[in-house]
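Lab meeting, action items carried over

1. Structure of the three-component assembly. Owner: GW. Status: complete.
Input record:
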Amino acid sequence: MKSNLKAWLYLLPAILFLGVFMVYPLIDVCVYSLEENYNFARQSFTGVGLENFRHVLSDPYFVQALKNTFLIVIITVPLSTGLSLLIALGLSSIRALKNLYQTVFFLPYVTNTLAVGLVFMILFRNTEYTKAMVNLLIEKFGGTGVDFIEGPYWAKMFVMCFYTIWVVMPFKILILTSALASVNQNYYQAARVDGASSARIFRKITLPMISPTVFYLVITGFIGAFKAYSDEVALFGTNLNAAGMNTIVGYVYDMLYGDSGGFPGYAAAAALILFAIVFTITYINLMMSRNKVQYI
Amino acid sequence: MEMSKKSSRLSRGLIYFFLTVWAVIVLFPFYWMILTSVKDFASYNTEYIPRFYTLNPTLQNYVDAFTSVPLGRYLLNTVIFTVATTGLMMLVIVPAAFAFARLEFRGRNLVFSLFLSLMMIPTELVIITNYVTIVNWNLRNTYLGLILPSVTSIFYIYLLKENFEAIPDELYKAAKVDGTGDLKYLLRVMVPISQPTIVTIVILKVIECWNSYVWPRLITYDSNYFLVSNGIQEIRENGLGRENTPAMMAAVVVISVPLIVLFLIFRNKIMAGVSRGGTKG
Amino acid sequence: MKVVLENLTKRFPGRGKKDADVIAVNRFNFEIPDGQLIGLLGPSGCGKSTTLNLISGLETPTEGRILFGDQDVTALPPEERGVGLVFQNYALYPHMTVEENIVFPLENLRGEKRMSKEAMHQKAAEAAKLVQIDHLMERKPRELSGGQQQRVAIARALVKIPRVLLLDEPLSNLDARLRLQTREELRRIQRETGVTTIFVTHDQEEAMSISDLIVVMKDGILQQIGKPQEVYDEPVNLFVAQFLGTPQINVFEGEIRGGKVMIGKEAVLDAPGKREGEVWVAIRPEGFMPDPDGPFTCRMDRIEVMGRDVSVVSTHEKMTGRNIRSIISAEIPVDSRAETIRFRLRPNKVFLFDRESEARV
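Predicted assembly:
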């Protein structure tokens, strides 16, 4: 039919691009993950099996990356969600300067994370010539300064999480602010007339009404945090293994390319492990939200 | 009554204090980068304890940033990459959204569900093969290699399709009776009516392109094709020398400014767009 | 332009495998003379909009032919038929000004019909003047009232001088006062342009008041076509009789026995030569005349004053609806406290329909 043909013509570019850069790679990545000892130059492999997965799971760098990623997820998702909820609540209860605050809070969203990461590095790094700005603050309150970029693991993890939270906050604040704004004011007025306290109004009215949004943020937050990579590069440089700050995604790229690269099989296996983890966590989240979230 | 007024004023004060603290945390890195970028290199090196201000600001660091590394080249590359990717993407997604929203064809629902299910696939999973594909096509260190994998977005097709569908059927019929072809109807009626959504998509894509790092890093090793993100990483690791922090910060300011200006101009559009369709975090 | 529909049929495939096809338009045959204003009338779902879409070319018929004059247009796409179409919600392009909206159809003309820019704007100005919106050309549709939007839609449909003008429920999005006004306006525009015009409506009063001809439809089947007064005076079946006229016609269970129309035990009218048996007796509200010696006795309920006329509301056990409504000149005295009221009936306001087929006896 003529109209059928025309429709497919309109869809052709999209189907072509998706086919080449989405569907085919999806199948291919599974194939890669099963081909053992794949050699890039000769495009040959020695066998088929789960060797790649075994290798990746026993690679200390991968285990470190796994540990780092989980720490980042567990620390940043609850903290950033909670903090942005507080800020959104604050924003929705003021009138003067509200626009200004909103604009300022959104700024990190539009900045290049690599570039601003460099500023964070400067702020947190001790060198022979310059002291970390942050250490001035710490010492002012009686603590001892530490090099957050090349120092102990906990310090690096701290600055890592701090920067991650700084980067993800704008999106969460924005979404929560608009969710709060869409709650009908009549509910608040009714509750106030009934004599409910502010805390009670928050717990019994506001929170249930915005709970779908909160869960959405938690789910997307988990997914995003599991894919952490470029923020790490911004702070610690491209050699994340040396810094002990690699993440799963970082491991995938390292296996693919770079000094330790050239192992698409390992990269594919690691990527599939990551996908399995994200999928499972998202599934659990969805199950939980189905029980808890009140849809209005 | 008096009591409650007092306590509400107190709590209001606390809210402003809390918001201001976060605003300072957000703004301080920006302040520090601008401050450092105008500090004289020599005097910066003598400050063991960094100062919070400078009395003799200089633009020399900006000159250094542009002359000692090809920062202009990086900016140009990024502009080309951003414009080409966004433009091509519109050419791909607008017809696709139109087909899904307006044209009748066998298998429409099936294809659309397939599209939606692909939305769940993370880029990290497909990037491995895409890297191999681009290498095999000999497209490393080319604009094409940078651009091709990111000219489709199922999410934007979805967003646009929803928008197109909200346009009443009668407009299509009216145009048809007047002899308007599908393509003309799409360009003259649907696209202008959906302009707000299209602008939103363009802005979001521009932000994404300007900040993209991972794919360009895989595909380019010739610094003639570096984008700003890769450039900044290059500067950090090999470029200006670890010691010339002020020049580094000047480079950071230069690559951050375009998007911040864009944001300040289209503030409402961007924030509305992100809350409708953006993700990050 | 004369419009002829021949054996026109449109079937829509049923949803799912089990459902039967839906026949929206079933074997239509009628002819619309040149330069007339035609009202397609029927309850919702009767197939009137489908008929309009078939004439415009937006739908293709399953069977049958459509002719404009002597030309068979059945296979032509909409743009080659030369029709103008006005939608119920006007379908104005929201991002274009009034003028751009009106010019838009002209821009699509190709070949020898193609006009220069000036000619297009000239034409648009003429069309706008005709519908009296020439002072609004620079506005956007959302800055106009409903009635003004309606006029823009008509101007857009008229600008390329269509052979046939089609209007889908043109007045139903307007408020009551504007509807009356626009009704007159439609009539005027049609007279001035002389273009054959077909409009769809579910409002019988609207159709009756301005149409040269009305076409009454039900369930995809044409019931009756004729001048409004003819159809009102001589309905071919019970449906048409009930659909036209306010208040609605009163329908009684009755029978024909011994050359008389019987309602209950009373012989209300002579019916010489009619076949004996059960019938529906339908009486228009204006067919009742109070007469103390009249043959038809009803139980009095109340009287509603309407100014020039009064409406006598009464009941009868053989009445199918709830109340009998009769319209009587206010000058005839009626006692509203009486138990009963007796009527004489005007023979030309009483119609008899077969109980089974509901066709006119």
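2. GW to write a short summary for the group page. Key points so far: Chain B has a mean pLDDT of 87. Chain B touches chain A through 93 residues (CB under 8 Å).
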